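Let us practice reading a record.
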Amino acid sequence: MTYISGKHAFRIAVLTRLDQIIAGLADIKDRQEKDMATIEEALVALEQQVATTDGVVDSVIVLLNGITARLQLLIEELAEQPAEAAELQALVDNLKAKTEALAAAAAAVPPPTIL
């Protein structure tokens, strides 16, 4: 049976505890790296969603402007029917206002800041 002195036993205990602390720190570092990877993936997905949303909003604005232009042509064709032309003009005016509001709202939204 081998006898271990008090100093030697203390050193072993300290070294064992330091090994445990180092292992715990390594686990924390691994979890932090995994968390950062998850956050980066979420940010990439968010950037893609924003780009898609921007594209959709732009497409809707183009579509609404096209509809407005076609309705305006129809109004011109209805010159001999003023009541119908007036109704369509009210619709066109409302559509233009909504389209401008949508474009202004889309332009007012700042792009997301990625840290």
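A brief commentary: The longest helix spans residues 6-77.
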